[in-house]
Structures are given as structure tokens and as C-alpha cells.
């Protein structure tokens, strides 16, 4: 069985991938999701986590939000450089969610309405704000406003 290790900026990315990966990956691939406490924590621990990973055949995917960084290419180069420092450049894939991963949720408010049982969200999809969620300054904040008090635990 092959192992694909996701090194993630935050728990919200982990929650998203827990729902998506079983539908997308071949059953012979074991996904391992490791969430950090934000981008600074991810960058601070990345080299150590990659170097100390015991499975030499594991493949790694690093996922981080662009957030307010002006240039996502520079962010990606920095993370790729950290992977190279750890000796894992040949087996690492770095992806930057421009701006935030939460933009994916805002792009499909019908799915959010169904998943969280929040009536009326689909009607908001036609507003300019939610037709182009990548243009929002803080998609995570917008998503929180739409769903506050509605998330089931």
C-alpha cells in the first residue's frame, strides 16, 4: 500500500480532505493528513517532519493558503526550498490555495447548504461576492458569517 502524506496549514483543510479523498484516491493509497496550527507552524516544522518521517516510500503534498502574501509563487518557492532542505524535493508536491481554501466552499453554496443544513444559502450564490470567491479578502471570514451557529458537532 502506498502512503500519501498531506502536510496542511490548518484543521479546516484536513476536514475538507477527509471528505474528498476517499472519493478521489485509489483504495491502495493510504492518505495521512497532518494539520499544523497555521502557516508559521507549518513552515517552522516542515523540514523536521519531512526528515523524521519513517516511511522512505511515502510521497508528500504540502498545502498552504496564500492569505495576504502578495506573491503565491514566492510562497511556493519557499516551501519547495524547505522540502529540498529536508531531502524530499523529488517526492514533494507543493500547492498554494489562492487566497484561502474556504473559497472552494463559497463557490458552491448549495453544497454548503445541504451539508450544514443552512437554509437559503443557495440564493446567495448569484451575488457578485459569491460568484467570484477568489476575489474576497477573507473567504474564511465570509464562510463563518454565513454559517455561524449552524455547524453541527
Tell me what you see in this structure:
The protein folds into two domains: 2-97, no CATH class; 103-147, no CATH class. By secondary structure, it is α/β, with parallel strands linked by helices. Helix 2 packs parallel to helix 3 (72-85). Helix 1 (11-24) links the parallel strand 1 and strand 2. Helices cover 46% and strands 18% of the residues. The model has no long low-confidence stretch (mean pLDDT 85). The longest helix is centred in the N-terminal third of the chain and has 14 residues, at 11-24.
Sheet with the most strands? 4 strands, parallel
- The low-confidence parts are none
| Total helical elements | 8
Compute the number of strand runs: 4
Q: How many domains would you count in the coordinates?
A: 2
Distance between the termini: 32 Å
Query: What structural class should be given to the helix and strand makeup?
Result: alpha/beta
Radius of gyration: 17 Å
What is the N-to-C succession of helices and strands?
EHEHEHEHHHHH
The portion of residues assigned to helices is 40-55%
Give the strand order of the largest sheet, numbering strands 1, 2, ... along the chain: 2-1-3-4
Silhouette: globular
Mean pLDDT: 85
What proportion strand?
A: 15-25%
